[in-house]
Write a structure and sequence with these properties.
With 96 residues, this protein is an all-beta fold. Helices cover 0% and strands 49% of the residues. It has no helices and seven strands. The radius of gyration is 14 Å and the shape is elongated.
Length: 96
Amino acid sequence: MFTTNNRPQDSPQDCSQKEFGVLSGVGEVTFDVNGGFLYGKIATSNALKGYTGKVTGGTGAFKGATGTIKTKTLNNKATKQAVTITYSTYQRTAIP
């Protein structure tokens, strides 16, 4: 299950499948979400407990996005994760 701002997204066109199998470390991630890409950085010291990280930007509807990424490990090999992304964007508008 992939969640963005508390709205479940589980169809293939809404998210790219990620393999979060490393037991510890840091990494950059890209989520292919309907409307653009969301970029982030995640880290863990124990993948069996999950990952945490920050949204660092995006493209399209997600340009300038900031927020958090949290995962919950779904199996004892840490190869399946439920991902929750909470983000916001700021759209600057010109004043005529």
